[in-house]
Design brief:
globular, mainly alpha, 2 strands, two-stranded antiparallel sheet, 4 helices
Length: 97
């Protein structure tokens, strides 16, 4: 990945995405096996300057910033909701102080 792409990206394997869609439509006879778990990949773009910057921070800040980037990736995929969204907003405000 280039340094101009997102620092963290969440993807879903194509096979799992298709199987989930098929299961939602009730096709493929997959109901006898139970539901498929949702599976995602978290891709860290080590070429992005923000990642390098985070690695140079102290441990406490590293964890907060890593969580912030992960939540941003989730937000971009429409996966951040409810209490997690509330925590994200509070953390965003705290980081701006």
């Amino acid at each position: 990945m280039s340094e101009t792409e997102a620092p963290i990206v969440i993807t879903q394997p194509e096979f799992m995405r298709r199987m989930m869609e098929q299961q939602k439509m009730g096709g493929g006879g997959m109901s006898m096996f139970g539901g498929f778990p949702e599976m995602y990949n978290l891709v860290v773009n080590t070429n992005h300057p923000v990642i390098g910057s985070i690695l140079k921070k102290q441990k406490e800040n590293k964890q907060k910033l890593a969580k912030q980037l992960t939540d941003l990736a989730m937000l971009s995929q429409g996966m951040l909701k409810g209490e997690e969204m509330t925590k994200f907003i509070a953390r965003s405000i705290e980081l701006m102080k």
